[in-house]
Protein 1
Amino acid sequence: MASNAVVLLSGGLDSYTAAAVARRDGFDLHALSINYGQRHVRELEAARAVAQALHATRHLELNIDLTPIGGSSLTSNAIAVPKDQAIDPDVIPSTYVPARSTIFLSLALGWAEVLGAADIYIGVNALDYSGYPDCRPEFIHAFERVARLATKAGVEGRPLTIHTPLIDLSKAQIITLGLSLGLDYGLTHSCYDPLPDGRPCGHCDSCQLRAAGFAEVGASDPLMARAG
């Protein structure tokens, strides 16, 4: 009998790939998506499509509105999403959402404990990323320590493992992995500031990283083909 794993599923390319790795690893997928008031709420529609494509046992959507806190161009219309800028990993951009990964992993941890699951999958990446501090291995390892201290399961000697299968991969390597797993990236949504009809802007950091990854692989992005 397969074990349960909680997978954080945003509807983006990375989370889709990480969830597919969990399925490949033999886990029953319990997908968790968060509506946090993000500008690109369109990604939740993609998350539903991805969860269905991966045959998730359950797809749970939680509403945790972070817009009153603000501080990010993804949760405040008063802050513009950067466009057509060189990505500097030493500069944390305005698209960083304060404590987002900490909040999301805490919710995933709570659900995992209820399910009796000892595994969480998250699609963070420390190579092709926009400088977010909560995408680094140091943060993931620290959160695992917190999970051991803060949960009944951890105290009773059943530690949680946070799987980050994409942590050291380039965007091109992530795409190559996903294609080898038969993923349809046309189901995903990556853009931080989509057009009113939902099409990607093509100019934000996320769009640029995605486009560069597909170009390096020498493959066409099915999302762009459908948008065109």
Note: The chain has a mean pLDDT of 93.
Protein 2
Amino acid sequence: MKAMVLAAGLGLRMRPLTLLRAKPALPVLNRPLLHWTMERLARAGVTHVMVNLHYLPETVTDVLGRGRRWGLVMRYSDEPVLLGTGGGPRAVRGLFGREPMLIVNGDVLFDFDLRRLLAVHRACGARATLALRRNPIPYAYSPVVVDRSGRILSIAGRPRRARGPVTMFASAHVLDPALLDRLPEGASDSVRDLYIPALAEGAHLQGVRTEGAWYDFGRPSLYRDAQLRLLPGRGPDRALVDGKARVAATARLRRSVVGSGARVASGARVERSVLWEGAAVEAGARLSGAIVATGGVVRAGDRAEDVIVLPAAALETGGEAGGRVERRGDMAWVELR
């Protein structure tokens, strides 16, 4: 089974974190987001994976390598110009032959059964089968309407409004690679330019309701909150601390994630926060709802609440910070949205 992981996006909504790394390479519970994705693919029987690249590509290839740790054969597709969710797969369509291909977004954390998605696709004879889930925020995610059998009737009210159970697209789908031939070369969108026109022509697109975790990191606060919800254990003092982190005996952690090589000094209090590898919290500092990136330092006695702390040099690339910025020496504190 072959799959493609879409990892070329700019991650604009996740700035300033994505000034440092591509969104699919951001750490989630002390592991790159893409590591979680590759585990799910390998578990589903995928053997070959294509990953498209554009923005900060080395941050993606550095965390994936050749895919050997998951028993995968990894290939990369460079996109000097972004091709979108349709154009990216269209550009490498020839590598997938005639067998169904699985496509997943690389910037979403999910934990549902891809094997069921594949089994339904093979059994129902649809041109494409989309993973669907309950739509908790209809104004934020386009509604997908299906009939009682799961056949998709409309997406975002197109090609025409329909009645039936309303769901949302969960960023994973299986399709006949020949369907991509409908797309022109260049940039395109898989839903707008492929699936909606196919529905208008009466093509069979199937939906599969999924259960399990699904987190779209649309902004830094959602990225932080998802990790705090996923912390193992119970109770307010639970924390995930990497074995190579250094936490002083008199420091206090509550519902936080601490990465490899991070330092939390004596008397510091870290609550509802995420510390990337190599982050530092000095003596007596107080953190609440913060994200401290690699190289970020919260100085002794400082109080960091609902901010992102990172080296100020990261903002000198010319990219937008994504929030109000306060300069503190060689550090930047960015309002966490």
Note: DSSP finds six helices and 28 strands in the chain.
Protein 3
Amino acid sequence: MTEQRKAVVLVSGGLDSTTVLALAREQGYDCHTLSFDYGQRHRAELEAAQRIADALGDVEHKVVRLNLDSIGGSALTDASIAVPEEASEGIPVTYVPARNTVFLSIALGWAEVLGATDIFIGVNAVDYSGYPDCRPEFITAFEALANVATKVGVEGGRYTVHTPLMELGKDDIVRLGARLGVDYSLTVSCYQATDDGRACGRCDACRLRREGFEAAGLEDVTRYVD
């Protein structure tokens, strides 16, 4: 029997990363899911990530604690900075400095321990909020780093950072998830979700998610406060 390939899949609890996990499973990977308790204000996403990992059949779900709130600089980690409820130009205050760099670095370390050379992340350069660490240039640079900064890379192995949603609109992502049988009611995307996971319906993440369901012609199963 051929052994399935292992992969580390970053799972935030949101729509995009859930779709990526379902896709990695469809492609035959044994998925080890990774989430981060990084001091985010929308902590309901951690419970959502666990639900998703259980529902989609991961091998192991790990939550790593980080204190990115100790450096602040983002509306997602600093309660004194309000989450914007209107679209804005440029990089928004919900950008968390170095977040994906840190997350991918830890995913890389775990992958090396597991003997996995595939890492999946749900970054997107189409329907996104302008975050610099969601662009193809960043992923290309990180993948190059991974292959010179590790024992595996030095000894001739090669890591691949998979970004299957990079060029998809939110409506395309929702359609893909529907085809894969994803239950999006399990997910939480809102930047200021309540403790029980209900969405505000006003922040950038809620707006993009709602527009995605509408454009896809599918029911929005998000639980809203109002």
Note: The longest helix spans residues 99-114.
Protein 4
Amino acid sequence: MRDKKWVYLQPTPVRIWHWLNALGIVTLCVSGAQIRFPAYIHVLGSYKSAILLHNTAGLVVAVSFSFWFFYYTCVARTMGKLYLPNRDDLQFGLLRQAKFYFLTYFLGWDNPHHPSPENKFNPMQKSAYLAIMFVLVPLVSLTGIVLTNVAPLRELVLMVGGLKFLVAMHFLLACALSAFLFTHVYLATLGRTTFAYIKPMWTGWEEEEEEEEHEVQDNL
């Protein structure tokens, strides 16, 4: 038998940031695709319009990222605890979570990670977010800023390998970010119901079911 309880996981500032960031990244993907393949994609009208929208969305995402960093570092002060994998995460948690995503979820088993305000993310999420938020997003943002200011930053452009190299780097980083977006949406549907992990990003609350009689936990 299971008892239901509600856990407040996502404060209002985090939810605002999440959806603002999501809208910005989707806009960047669509406008970036039109800029990269103008002969095949015409979703946003003219090429000039796509560039303007892309630059605007890039600015929104950069500001949003700064907001996220400030909130978790200076307000909540939980950046390290939430996003840095600990020893148990690295030794056992990654394998345990991968086993759930690739096998035991399809057998109807429970998620081995039970989120709390102090431990929101499972080991795989921590590792992915660490790479995305501390490596990928900053690099995409920095290369984008340089590409929108080529003339005044000419020396920097030459220093990093030239304009073609910078464009290629920005495009490849953006492709990686797009791949993460699709993966993120898919994994968000792997709750007890399709929208169980999505609702908390609207309401802040996640419903969790607890077993009265706990089964023997899988050690992997």
Note: The two ends are 25 Å apart (CA to CA).
